[in-house]
Amino acid sequence: MRLVWLAVILTLSLALALVAAEAQQVGKVPLVGRLSPTNPSADAPIRAGFQQGLRDLGWVEGQNIAIEYRYAEGKVDRFPELAAELALKVDLIIAASTAGAVAAKRATGTIPIVMITLGGQDTVASGLIASLARPGRNLTGVIGLGEELGTKRLQLLREAVPSVNRVAVLANPADPEAGPAVKVLETAARTMGIQARVLEARDPSGFENAFQVMTSRGVGGLIVLESIIFVTHRRRIVELAAKSRLPTMYPTREFVTDGGLLFYGTALPDMHRRAAYYVDRILKGAKPADLPVEQPTKFELVINLKTAKALGLTIPHSLLLRADQVIE
């Protein structure tokens, strides 16, 4: 009899343990790791877009989802360490750059990764994904058009400053997107009868010299390419462009809100807001390999009229009418 009761008690204990485990699993708050290429200050408006996208889908940080943040502070060589650290604990990784996505993919072949990058087809050419329609394995997300925007940006800069016939291109040769972007701009410049001078800066210590060369060569405008270093230290670049009195086209909206002249492209906060859709789908059971990578279809032109006036520029009325936002 005692053996029977003992068997009953063990059976009930096991059943209760299974119920408790299932309840704990159901009530588990997913942990998402967000790997940013910049610092908390530079990342703030972009991070806000991601958080808003989550809220729109019913995910509230601190309630039904937890997020761990890691910042590379503009140092690409920190990505492998930070990605490996996140891979030990999180259920999903958000990689907010091409380099971050590469590091995350090397750190884990099983944890889902959602990337948000400004680069375009280089994500396919580099082998990061198999194709846009079927990215493969554990990585998907939202990517920009990268170098494909170069021609349009040069056209808009020329439209804002019709007299410009020499343009500098600020590039970071360490970025994989830099080479293709430079080629597109050089081709577009030749077609438009503009001389293009490429100047390189791998870190902030190279900014001063690059702008000194621009000034000495008498360039009439500047295009800043996408780069983690440039975005992280955007305020310094904006200051140097203002000091050099150079009309400048920038790669993200945040440069213009910080005092830069022109931006054309896709707003990073919007791309991160869209990335929340992938997080939602994956946390509800979808596989990254089954979620096609998206590219933006909406682009915006932002003009800082206050900066234009400081540079002594009169922006054509036709261009102002086409702007999505004019900062005064």
Structural domains: how many:
2
Low-confidence stretches: 1-26
Number of helices: 14
What's the Cα radius of gyration?
A: 24 Å
Name of the level-1 CATH class of the largest domain: Alpha Beta
Beta-strand segment tally: 12
Largest sheet: 7 strands, mixed
Overall outline: elongated
How do the helices and strands follow one another from N- to C-terminus?
HEHEHEHEHEHEHEHEHHEHEHEHHE
List keywords for this structure.
328 residues, alpha/beta, Rossmann fold, seven-stranded mixed beta sheet, five-stranded parallel beta sheet, 14 helices, elongated, disordered N terminus
Task: Write up this protein.
The protein has helices at 2-26, 40-56, 79-87, 98-107, 122-125, 150-160, 178-191, 207-217, 228-232, 234-243, 253-257, 268-283, 305-310, 317-322; strands spanning 31-36, 66-71, 92-95, 113-117, 139-143, 166-171, 195-200, 221-224, 248-250, 262-265, 300-304, 325-327. The protein has 328 residues and is of the alpha/beta class. It has 2 domains: 30-145 and 267-290, Rossmann fold (3-Layer(aba) Sandwich), CATH 3.40.50.2300; 147-265 and 300-327, Response regulator (Rossmann fold). The strands form 2 sheets. A 7-stranded mixed sheet has the order 7-6-8-9-10-11-12, with helices on both faces. Strand 3 (92-95), helix 4 (98-107) and strand 4 form a beta-alpha-beta unit. It is elongated, with a radius of gyration of 24 Å. The protein starts with a helix and ends with a strand. Residues 1-26 have low confidence and may be disordered.
